[in-house]
Every structure is written in C-alpha cells, then in structure tokens.
Amino acid sequence: MEGVLENVNDVVQNIRRRQMSITERTEESVRLGVAQMDNGFKKLKEISIVVLETGLRLPGLLFIELLWRYQGVSFEDISDNMIKQMPLSYFDIPTMLDFVHRRNFDHHAAIILSYFVIFISLMFLTLPLNRLIRMYSHFLSIFLFGVAYKLSAIYVDLELKSNEEELKLDGLIKLERHGFHFLAQVFFFTEMDMRTNRLLQMLLVVLQSMLLEVDGEPWRVALPVFALPIVARMCGCPRDKLKNAHNYACTGTMIFIATYILFRGPSLIKSTKTALRQIKAVFMVHGLADGVSVLWRKLRILELLTFTWITMFLMVLYVELIDKGRTWSEVGRVLLTGVAETTNTPITLAALAVSVSYVCKWIADLTKLITGGTRSHGHVLAHSGYTEAVSVVILCIQTGFLGMQVEQKTILLALVLYIVISALLQSLFEIIEVVLLNLPSTPTATTSRHARCISIALLLVVIPFFTTKTMLTFLPIDIYTAIIIANSATVTARAIGVILKYIVLIVETKSEEPWEGIDDLVYYIDCANKGIELIAANVVLAFGCWQVVRVGFSFATFAILLFHVIVNIYKRAEQTLHYIRNRNAAVKNINRLSKADVTQLREREDVCAICFIEMKEEARITPCKHYFHGPCLRKWLAVKMVCPLCYTYMKEEDFGAKPTSSQASNLDQIRENPRNAEEAEDEEVAAAGGDIFDWDDLFNFRADRNRNERRLHNARDMWPLSVDDDAYESDSDNGEELIIAEED
Asked: Which residues form the RING-type domain (predicted)?
C-alpha cells in the first residue's frame, strides 16, 4: 500500500512539475514575444526618425545645388526657352520673372539672395530635429500670413465691385456673406466659387498661434490683423476707404513680424553660441578626424545625398515620361538621360556615387541573404559599395563629366555603368566563392541552400555575356571597354571554376576515404583560371598598345596601361608562379614522407587532425611523428610548411629523415609558442626568395601596411554603409543623442 501511495505521489509531483514547466515556458514565450515587439517598434521608430529627418533636411541640399548650378546666370539671361526646359514647368515662372524684372533685382538682390540661400541651407542641414521642426513651423506661419493677405485683397476687390455704397446688415444673406468672409478661405479666388470653397479663417489664426507658440493675449489678438477690412466694412466704412484698411493690416503685419523677430533674436543668438560650444566640445573630446566623423553620422550626410539625388532623378523621369510623352520602349535611354541631367555639380556627383554604393551594397546583402552567408562586413572595403562609388567619382573626374553636354554625359554614363556592373560582379563572385566552397563540408546545409548557391554561380556565368553584348551595341571598343570585357571573361571563368571545384568537393564528401586525386583536379582548375586571367590581361595590354599606336599617345591611357601591367599582369603572374612553386614543393615533399601501413592505422584508431575523418587505409607520417591523410597534408603544406598539429616548421631536408634531437627538444617550446614556427617560416622564405623583386618593397607598402589598415578601419566612421553600431556605444553613455543647438 505504501508503495502505491509513493507511486501516486511521484505521479502527482511529475504532473505539477510538468504544469509548472508549461507555465514557465508560456511566460518565457510571452516575454520573448513582448521583447521582439519592443525591438520591432524601436527599429520602426528609428527608421521613421531617419526618414523624417532626411526629408526635412532635403531643401537645404536642393537650395545649394540650384545655387551652384545657376551661379553664373543673371536674371536677364533667363529666357523663355530656359523656362520650357526646366522640370518645374507647372509653376507660373513667367509671372515670377516678370515680378523680378520689374523690381530690378539683378543689381541688388543677387548677392543678398546668394548669402540668404546659403544661410537658410546651412540651417536646414545643421539644426537638430526639434529646431528644424520649429523652423518649418515659422515658414508655414509666413505662408499663412500670405494666404490671409490674399484673402483680404480679394475681399476688398469684391466690395469695390459691389453696388452698395453703405453696408446694411438687414438680412441674413448679407450677414452670412460678410461673416463667411471673416471666417472663410477661398480656394480658387473667384466670386462664383466664394460660397462653395471655404475653410474657417479663424482656424488660420489658431494654427498660427500654435505654430509660433505665441504667449499672451495681446499677441494672439494681433494675429487676425487682415480681418481689419472686413470689420471696418461691417462697421460702416465706405468702399473707397477699404484699401486704407487693407494697407493698415499690411503695416500691422510687418510690425508684428519685426517685433516677433526682435523678441526671438536673442534666443536665436544664444542657441547659436550653444551650438558652437557643443561643436567645439565634440572636436576637443574626439579629435579632428573623429569629431568630423561624429558630426558626419549625426547629420546623416550620406542618407541626405542619396535622398536628394533620388528626388531630383524622379522629377526628371516624371518630366521625360509624362510631360514629354516618351514611350516605355525608350526606358533605358530615358534612365541614362535622367542621370545625365541630374548630375551637373560636384554635389550631385557625390550623391550619385553614394546612391551607387547603396545599390551595390543592397545587392551584395541580398546575395548573402539568398546564399545563407553572413551579412557582416569585416572590412570597410568588403562588399560595402565603397569600391564602386570611388570608381564612379574617379572616372567622372578624369573624363571631365561635369563639363559635358547631356548627349556626351549619356554615353559616358553608359561606360561608367558597365564598369560598376563589372566591379559588382567581382564582389558577388567573392561572396559566392566562399559560401559555395564551404557548402560540401557543411552537413547541416539544406538542399535548397545548395540550389540557391548554384543558381547564383550560374547567373555569374551568364550575366557577363549579356552585359558585354549590350555594351558593344552602345559603346565603341576602346581601352575601357576592353578592360570591361576582360573582367567579364575573368568572372565567367572563375564562376565556372568554382562550380567545378564544388562538384569535386561534393564527390569527395560522399566518399569514405579522402580522394587521392582531388588535389590534382583542384590544382588544374585553379591553373586554368589563372591562365585565363593572364591571357585576358595580356590581350588588354596588346589592345592598349595598338590603341596608342593607332590613335596617339595620351597620359590617361599610359597610366591605365601601367597600372594594368603592375596589378593585372605582374602581380598575377607572380602569384601564379608562387602558387605553382608551393604546390610542386608540397607534392615533392609529401612523396618523400613515409606512409603508414594498415596495421599501424588499425592499432592507432586515430582520425586525421585536418579533416577529422578516421584514417583506415592511407596516412602520411611527418618528421614530428604525427599522422595525417596524404591529400589533406598536401593541401596544408601548399600553404604553410609547418605541422598542422604542433606547428613544427619542416625544412626540406627533414622530409624522409627521422626527427633530430634538436627538433625533439624544441617541440615543447613550439607547442607553447606557435609564433616561433611562423617566424622561422618567414625567415626561411626571406632567405629563399631574397632575389625576387617585390613591388611592395619598391613603394614602401609593407612598412605602412598596419598604419594604413588602421586608417581604413577608422574610415568606417565616415562610411555608414558598413558601420558596426557597437563601435559607437561609447559616444553617449546615457543613450542621449548629440544635438547642435540647445534644447528648450
């Protein structure tokens, strides 16, 4: 009986534990769900703030762009043909120009307007978000004053056209008409639509009071000053005196604006001083370079450049496709024309480069997402669009892009576009190569991931053919197009080689023992790829020399060919010879190592320390008495002449000989400090290759490499496309954002 009771108690306790565990799991799931929702809302809030701030700062960069574009054009030079070519053709620009010409603005207002535009643009670009919103509220208030002025002028004009000398409010219709004039806004400003298109006039005053944050009753009473003609008319003022009432209202408005500026001016000056002190504090704390990078990130310069260029580009596309009636069959040429018309100043050129970098980064991230690779950028130049952006800027500066006509810009942009596509394909290949070669050794990889990676690799085989074909239909063959064609052929050959190596690795993975001939196949594939690269580079060199002989010598062509010879021919040939030499040395050395028979392997029952597969039939014994698969050790020795397990440096005389007493005595020291092996290897390589000419030594690259890499990592602050957010957590311990003006 006691045993039964104990069993029942155990069952009850198990049930209670299960219920408690279910409850705890439910609570944990709820907590995780709430945390995920909070993170989602935080990210949505951050994105919304970025979009809002970028949109509010947009006019600043647009004003500077327009000022730079038309800085050499006077008001008298603006003709009707220029007006028709402007994208904002739906504005009544002739009336504006007539207004400008009649006031002789050409002699007095040019300098004033230029400095005023620069001042307003700097305010748009540098003010913090809360001050920027306040600035927009002031602009909106000025606009509402203009609306009130227009309504007052319309009312005076309508009363002058009426037949009543004296106003008698003896009927509901008359009272309604003047009452709605007092409280209404007319949209189309016509007498027929006066009663049908209305909004409450007093709402304008209330809105102005809210926007300006007016304190005190007298200030609020002064806002509806343009209602003075209506009040005067309702009080019996003659019709011919209404213009005087309207003029009094205009005078009162100007006095109100001047008084408001007088009262708000000291606060503006105080905020400016505070902003300058904060900027000075930023540079004192972070230094010059880091201070510039902090302000660069806080002001969102790159996002603003991209948003500005996209806005102008969409406006040009709207004019080309809608106003000019271009067909959709001309979309390609329309796109290039839109880019050419948009890019006219260094500002828009920088914006174009940043936009290109963003697009390239998004494509690279999408490729990583499809293939299942990591999306983190370990280096500022690693698939972040930086290379493509710099290529665009250098090519445009070298060719004088900004000083060309639209037709010439279109042709040059097509060339730049294909160069960017070529660089992007190279970046995509670097992404897919790592992922595809790691897939065979990843047992958790799904079939769909294999299929996605193979599909991307096949696209890299096909896309270069289409880009080359379309490029030859648009552009003539010169040194630039020859380099693009060579790069396309190189990417195609590399993609085919990666697919072949993937197939070989898959076959090796399915086999029980390492495949003895796999290293030879991979070696032949790599040699074929390197041979194709060298052949393509030499063809480009031959074509460039023929171009120099046929067309004539130019410094740009000579510089391109010199860089091509150093980077694409000499360095590749040196790397290829080094690869072949190391591989042949590894094969020769591995053949000199003793083999372990089946009996020894069965007695050891050990696995290879390189591939972690059990050694059953074949193994090689190193001079330090370690066992490895022959193919695995051959791959290792082709890279480093050290033992994979203990990092003992192996000289060529050690192969085929027993380990000496000095090796045995130094084995423990090498295990404790593996860097000794690397230092010994570097000394050996330096001694063996002392007669080899190295371009790095010629240009002192090797001595400055560490310093340059540190600078590149610091440049990450200036390039938020690949910024690690954790690196900036120390900017503000309390999570407070930097502001440039003092908060109210």
From this structure: 608-646
Residues in contact with 609: Cβ distance below 8 Å, sequence separation at least 6, in sequence order: 626, 628, 644, 645
**Which amino acid would we find at residue 201?**
Q
Nearest CA among 486, 386, 366, 507 for reference residue 431: 366
3-class state of residue 189 by DSSP:
coil
Residue whose structure tokens are 């002190």: 277
- Are the C-beta atoms of residues 537 and 486 closer than 8 Å to each other? yes
| Token pair in block for residue 188 | 């189309």
pLDDT digits (tens, 9 = 90+) for 326-337: 776 777 778 888
Give dist(CA 1, CA 352) in Å, integer: 87
Q: What is the pLDDT of residues 340-375, one digit of tens each?
A: 888 888 888 888 888 888 888 888 888 888 887 655
The pLDDT tens digits of the residues spanning 597-633 come to 777 777 777 888 887 777 777 788 888 888 888 777 7
CB atoms within 10 A of CB 341: 21
Hey, where are the domains in the chain? 1-58, 59-288, 301-510
Q: For residue 590, which of 610, 574, 605, 568 has the smallest C-alpha distance?
A: 610
CA angle 154, 159, 163 (to 5 degrees): 150
Sheet holding 627-628, edge to edge: 594-595, 620-621, 627-628
Number of H helices, E strands in the chain: 26, 3
Q: What is the dihedral of CA 427, 432, 433, 435, to 10 degrees?
A: 130
Alpha helix stretches (DSSP H) within 618-738: 630-637, 661-672, 675-688, 695-698, 701-714
Write out residues in the chain with pLDDT < 70, as ranges.
1-25, 70-110, 164-223, 328, 373-385, 512-516, 638, 651-744
Question: Looking at 435-578, which runs of residues are DSSP E strands?
Answer: none
Contact 271, 741 (CB under 8 A): yes
Distances (CA, A) of 174 to 164, 169, 177, 178: 11, 6, 5, 6
Q: Which of 220, 215, 203, 217 is nearest to 148 (CA)?
A: 203
Q: Is the dihedral of CA 194, 199, 202, 204 positive or negative?
A: negative
Report how far Cα 605 is from the mean position of its chain's Cα atoms.
54
| pLDDT score recorded for residue 458 | 92
Question: Which position has the token pair 């020399």?
Answer: 545
Q: Give the separation between CA 334 and CA 552, rounded to whole angstroms.
A: 34
Q: What are phi and psi of 241, to 5 degrees?
A: -100, 0
Q: What is the DSSP string of 544-598?
A: HHHHHHHH---HHHHHHHHHHIIIIIIIHHHHHHHHHHHHHHHHHHHHHSEEP-H
Q: How far apart are CA 570 and CA 592, in angstroms?
A: 33
CA distance 350 to 57: 17
Query: What is the phi/psi pair of residue 64, to 5°?
Result: -65, -40
Distance CA 496, CA 235 (A): 91
Q: What was the pLDDT predicted at 90?
A: 39
Query: And the tokens for 552?
Result: 């004539």
Q: Which residues of 587-622 are buried (b: 16+ CB within 10 A; e: fewer)?
A: bebbeebeebeeeebeeeeeebbbbeeebeebbbeb
- Taking the whole predicted model, whether its pTM rises above 0.70 is answered as no
Single-letter amino acid code for the residue at 454:
I
Per-residue pLDDT, 302: 84
| Residues in CB range of 685: below 8 A, 6 or more apart | none
**What distances in angstroms separate CA 313 from CA 97, 317, 338, 644, 690, one per listed residue?**
25, 6, 6, 57, 56
